[in-house]
Amino acid sequence: MADKSITSSATDSTNQETRNTSNVLDTRSFQELNHSYDLPVDSAEHSRLDLQHELVRLMLGGKLYKQPELVQATLSAAENHKRQILDVGAGSGKWAIEIAETFPDAEILGIDLSLPSVLQDPSHPVPSNCAFKIADANCDMDKLDNIFDIVHQRCVESGINDSDLFFYDAARILRPNGLLLLVAVNPQLVDEKGRMLPIQRPGNEGYSHYQHMLGCMLEVHMKKGPFRLGHALWKSMLENNPNYTDVRVEEVLVPIGPWPVNMGETERRLAELMQEDILLVSPAFKAIFLRDGDLSEEFVGKLIDGVMKEIRELPPQVHGYVKWVFATAVRNEKPWTSRKEPWQEPPGFDVYDYVVRPLPKE
Ligand SMILES: C[S@@+](CC[C@H](N)C(=O)[O-])C[C@H]1O[C@@H](n2cnc3c(N)ncnc32)[C@H](O)[C@@H]1O
Fold first, then answer.
1. Which atom belonging to ligand 1 lies closest to the Cα atom of 161?
2. What is the pTM (predicted TM-score) of this model?
């Protein structure tokens, strides 16, 4: 297939005003393309994503990806073709823009349910080898007719209805030996070994407003369809997918706030950024609960206030970490194989190893 330019064919970035439709609730804006993704898509959220981007870069030692040797090899392959990179769920566009600056000879396409706010800011011009387009990865992947060297998806899994299907879709548009790069964060409170901290009732020892908020969020999430925290199953999905080889998955735990003693400089900064990230995202849950939850405004207000106080507190009452998951898989050289049957959870899989069990009703 000829290398079709992605920056010239993606025109949405020039008319974002008309395409960036969203509804507004409690001063926050939400996308309306699908009912799967819950978080806001406004400039406040994009600022948070910029901060989260710094956090992930720090975890990656300043890089934009894991397995730098694989990325370098993929992008400097001997074949004489234009390198093309797809960023799925590009958010604020920061990763796409920085990868475009890092590899000026490559072309980058960022797709998302809404466009990055940076496109409306003339003081931050987007590199000419980077374009953005509105697309839903749940139903628009088959409209992409380029062949990519890298498909990147970071922190998008809560908006992906079927991760297994997404991996098949990504394999179809990846070049042989192309790379799938995945990052997820599971916001649940875990201990220093990555085990879920059990949820407690309000008033009991170990009660956490933050965990309570995540429990309420899970109930909202489950009302809209099946559990979508796919990273728990990434390894198994990718290893069972005939289109991939060399699957690598790595987990990194980051404390929420600089509470552990004897932290190194980088670990402290990571913990501070993680704390800041949660403080920035939590107020958005208010709008989501008021829109989709069966919760009173008074309850929601108190819960979010409690979260903000608890996360700021040092040392915190609950010593928790958040788990980040990094995965890579290499597209093998075999012809693309489509999915034959829907993914089945492996025997013994328990979703409550990955998310809080909702509190029993009083
Ligand atoms: C938490 S943000 C992460 C943004 C960016 N990847 C990053 O790491 O900074 C998730 C983004 O994925 C987008 N998203 C969620 N579900 C999506 C879907 N089905 N298709 C395309 N984009 C999606 C959201 O609109 C949002 O911008």
1. 19
2. 0.94
CA of 336 to the centre of ligand 1 (A): 26
What is the DSSP-derived secondary structure letter of residue 31?
A: E
Tell me how far the alpha carbon of residue 79 lies from the centroid of ligand 1, in angstroms: 31
Q: Could you give all domains of the chain from N- to C-terminal order, each with its CATH number?
A: 6-333 (3.40.50.150)
Tokens of 99: 């990868």
CA 113/CA 133 separation, integer angstroms: 9
Strands (E), the chain: 22-25, 28-31, 84-88, 107-112, 130-134, 148-154, 174-190, 244-255, 321-331
Pocket test for ligand 1, best of 30, 58, 108, 112 (most atoms within 8 A of CB): 112
pLDDT in tens, 90-117: 999 999 999 999 999 999 999 999 999 9
pLDDT tens-digit readout, 319-345? 999 999 999 999 999 999 999 999 988
CB 127 within 8 A of CB 101: yes
Question: Side chain identity at 10, as an amino acid letter?
Answer: A
**90 C-alpha to ligand 1 centroid (Å):** 6
CA distance 330 to 149: 10
CB within 6 Å of ligand 1 — which residues? 31, 37, 39, 41, 49, 52-53, 89-92, 95, 111-114, 136-138, 154-156, 159-160
Nearest CA to ligand 1 atom 15: 159
- CB-based contacts of 279: which residues, under 8 Å, 6+ apart? 308, 311, 312
Which residues, including other chains, have CB under 8 Å from residue 281's CB and lie 6 or more apart?
39, 48
Residue 228: other Cβ atoms inside 10 A: 17
